[in-house]
Design brief:
The model has no long low-confidence stretch (mean pLDDT 91). It is globular, with a radius of gyration of 13 Å. The chain has helices at 6-25, 66-74, 105-113; strands at residues 30-34, 40-47, 50-56, 80-83, 91-95, 98-103. Strand 3 (50-56), helix 2 and strand 4 form a beta-alpha-beta unit. The N and C termini lie far apart (32 Å). The chain has 115 residues and is of the alpha/beta class. It is built from three helices and six strands.
């Protein structure tokens, strides 16, 4: 990831996470969300009555929770994930009023293939 141009890194990471999610869910209930103001959540997976939100970031410190907070105001039920390369052990992190689980791709697969 260090040798990829900065302009390409985020988009390539998002596509890799998309492939992981498609493999884990067979593409079922896999969506994205964008409002009329252009705020977006990279991926949304409907599970039961909730909607899990997945954001893709090469660096978790660059995650801006504003769009996710607006999404959660509209769809309060579900889990929040930020998927980053190099995360070996998942952990929870608070961004204002939101609790987000920071995971790598391996743990993301486990989240969506178990139970």
């Amino acid at each position: 990831w260090r040798d990829i141009r900065d302009d390409d890194r985020g988009l390539l990471w998002e596509h890799l996470v998309l492939d992981v999610l498609r493999a884990a869910t067979r593409g079922e209930s896999l969506h994205f969300w964008r409002d009329k103001s252009g705020r977006e959540v990279d991926f949304v997976l409907r599970r039961g009555r909730g909607a899990d939100a997945v954001e893709c970031k090469v660096n978790v410190d660059r995650f801006d929770p504003k769009s996710l907070a607006i999404f959660r105001d509209l769809y309060p039920q579900g889990s929040n994930y930020v998927v980053c390369p190099g995360i070996r052990s998942p952990y929870a992190r608070r961004f204002g009023g939101l609790v987000v689980k920071v995971v790598g791709c391996g743990d993301l697969i486990k989240e969506f293939t178990s139970g």
